[in-house]
Design goal:
Number of helices: 12
Bound molecules: norvaline
Strand order of the largest sheet: 7-6-5-8-9
Shape: globular
Oligomer: single chain
Length: 306
């Protein structure tokens, strides 16, 4: 509505803005003082479980001088106890921004269309753009540059992969996704990233062989095979993704110096081998910490324009 900036998709930030947000996240991490949210209250409404997203938003808002108001999945009944648009209207009258985690991406679009405050996507079935902010910050810290970095994403072409593909296309990285047939990126994402890559110099390659993906990778990234809300597909997915586990043997096929990332929570024994998160090549916990800094960078941008 009007001039309100929402962050529902990575593409809601222009490439230069995305870089600005990441730079701000890094500056805040390095100790830059900011009270960008002084006197502001931010509603946080989650319809799915969360550890990192809830913690990082609450702590981040607090550090920027704001006040988080958290609603658990049982409390609001978005679209059930009360129409989605009415929740958006009420929150807009009292809070200064809304952070929402829900199932269908369309619910978030409906919410943001009725909201007069910034709405931030804290994960939907369609995208996880806050994760991508932290991912890009982590990749930049690890690799020195986003432009030209080679990332191999092994596994499901899900919300995390979609946002990562958009983020890397915006910043000029080379992404190879290895997935079994039927689980690669949606066609819409593939066509969305093509013109972005043409501009940024990045690239996207879809393959089925994990070894082909990691062979020249600076970073190997994976996510769960069964996302929240897909639990009834667990058995079929365990079968489909056999052979797509990231483990030390797969990392050994990548160049020396490769780093491993996972957005967490992980399911050891499924998409990763036991102990991989604490392998010397893993930067998964730096990545988790960066949720705090990158989202603070986003909030800073939304409230100050810089
Ligand atoms: N793809 C996962 C990400 C969890 C942070 C899910 O949607 O459950």
């Amino acid at each position: 509505m009007g001039n309100v900036r929402h962050f529902l998709s990575v593409t809601d930030l222009a490439p230069s803005e995305l870089r600005e947000v990441i730079a701000r996240g890094r500056a805040l991490k390095a100790g830059e003082p900011s009270q960008a949210l002084a006197g502001k209250s931010i509603a946080i409404l989650f319809e799915k479980p969360s550890l990192r997203t809830k913690l990082s938003f609450e702590v981040g808002i607090h550090r920027l001088g704001g006040h988080p108001v958290y609603f658990s999945p049982e409390e609001v009944g978005l679209g059930k106890r009360e129409p989605v648009q009415d929740v958006a209207r009420v929150m807009s009258r009292m809070a200064d921004a809304a952070v929402i985690r829900t199932f269908n991406h369309g619910i978030l679009e409906e919410f943001s269309a009725a909201a007069t405050i910034p709405v931030i996507n804290a994960l939907t079935d369609g995208e996880h753009p806050c994760q991508t902010l932290a991912d890009l910050q982590t990749i930049e810290e690890s690799n020195g540059s986003l432009e030209g970095v080679r990332v191999a994403y092994i596994g499901d072409g899900n919300n995390v992969a979609i946002s990562l593909a958009l983020g890397m296309a915006s910043t000029g990285g080379h992404l190879t996704i290895a997935s079994p047939g039927g689980y690669t990126l949606p066609e819409k994402t593939v066509s969305d990233v093509a013109p972005m890559n043409a501009k940024s110099g990045g690239s996207l390659k879809l393959v089925t062989d994990p070894v082909e993906a990691v062979i020249d990778a600076d970073i190997v990234y994976t996510d769960v095979w069964t996302s929240m809300g897909q639990e009834e597909e667990t058995r079929i997915r365990l079968e489909a993704f056999k052979g797509y586990q990231v483990n030390p043997e797969l990392l050994d096929k990548a160049p020396a110096g490769v780093r491993f990332m996972h957005d967490l929570p992980a399911h050891p024994g499924e998409e990763i081998s036991d102990g991989l998160l604490t392998d010397p090549r893993s930067i998964a916990f730096d990545q988790a910490e960066n949720r705090l800094h990158a989202q603070a960078g986003l909030l800073h941008f939304l409230f100050t324009g810089a």
